[in-house]
Amino acid sequence: MNVLFLTLVSIEDINEQGIYQDLIKEFRSRDVNIFVLCPRERRMRLETELFEDDCIKILKVKTGNITKTNVIEKGITTLTIERVFLNAVKKYFKKVKFDMIIYSTPPITFYKIINFFKKKDNAISYLMLKDIFPQNAVDIGLIKKASFLYKYFRKKEEKLYDISDFIGCMSPKNCEYVLKNNHIAKEKIEVFPNSIKISDFSTAADYSDIYQRYSVPKDKILFLYGGNLGKPQGIAFLIDVIDNFEKLENSFLLIVGSGTEYGKIENHILTHKICNTKLISFLPKKDYDSILKKADVGLIFLDKRFTIPNFPSRLTAYMDYALPILAATDKSTDLKETLENSECGFWCESGDTEAFMKYVEILSKDKEKRVKMGKNGRKHLENNYNIEKNIDIILKHLYKTEA
User: Fold this and answer.
1) Which CATH class is domain 2-197+386-402?
2) What does the H/E/C string look like for the chain?
3) What is the CATH number of domain 201-384?
């Protein structure tokens, strides 16, 4: 069986853990040939290149810049990547007959590629819905609903849903939202959560000097946020949290990530001479895993204005390392129910600084609660977000067709 996987995530090391890397490896473990198309951005100054590893073939396609660039270049690249990807797959995989084509959002502009292989190979099409665009951009004020841009991308979104045989959503509320706001047959929609290969976190790198290396105090409870730092995270609230951490004596905030709002956070820390927060734009994977192992609490931030039910992929990494979770998000997501039902963390609405800091205080003072919540999260991960179990959600469609 041959599966084509389209993604905007740059797959640099297939052996690293991640929701896409682990998905690819799990296909291989089921003796499925997986062909991956991912971007190699212009800034890398490298040409298109094919890498092969057993049943995995990764085609890194030279594209324009998508990340760490201005809105205009990102927009142009997003609009042209469909043609670039299609030309590449025709050139490098022209003799391959694909049984299934899998793709994730973003982007919503893969319609022509999907249509090509559905007609050529009668391939099954499976959308892994990771964000709901353009509504998410409307929610945080990036575009207006009455604008030409919204209408243009909304049509693209509708065409993508229409051509997809199946749509895997991250959570039950994701499914409900998509069905409520689109004309889609209920049979096409199913829950396919963000899932990873469960790791033995006890064997993760554990550098004795990791605190000293990154100027993190050893004698304080370490609250960690790792992930994107853009408008979707509700940066104004995050900055408010940073200011409030200055008042704490026994807790420390470590932020690891990059994005469009990184400079704003960095400038605030410098101009206000913040001492109880450390901001790092990048950490080597082994170093970040070591920090995860030593951290006491994992943090999640999302802008309160979202009306779409986001479900952050960062959750799985925290659960994998048995970290209790403190999330500040919009009311639309069912992350709140997940944390409460699994008893693995606390939730408050983004912007509610008083509630957030109350939970910070509870977690910083009660080690027993932290340990218990962390174990509960790990158990929830094993039962619900294990790629070894969840891959069957996709494969049932592939093998049903084969039969």
Assistant:
1) alpha beta
2) CEEEEECCCCCCCCCCCCHHHHHHHHHHHCCCEEEEEEEEEHHHCCCCEEEEECCEEEEEEEECCCCCCCHHHHHHHHHHHHHHHHHHHHHHCCCCCCCEEEEECCCCCCHHHHHHHHHHHCCEEEEEECCCCCHHHHHCCCCCCCCHHHHHHHHHHHHHHHHCCEEEECCHHHHHHHHHHCCCCHHHEEECCCCECCCCHHHCCCCCCHHHHCCCCCCCEEEEEECCCCHHHCHHHHHHHHHHHCCCCCEEEEEECCCCCHHHHHHHHHHCCCCCEEEECCCCHHHHHHHHHHCCEEEEECCCCCCCCCCCCHHHHHHHCCCCEEEEECCCCCHHHHHHHHCCEEEEECCCHHHHHHHHHHHHHCHHHHHHHHHHHHHHHHHHCEHHHHHHHHHHHHHHHHC
3) 3.40.50.2000
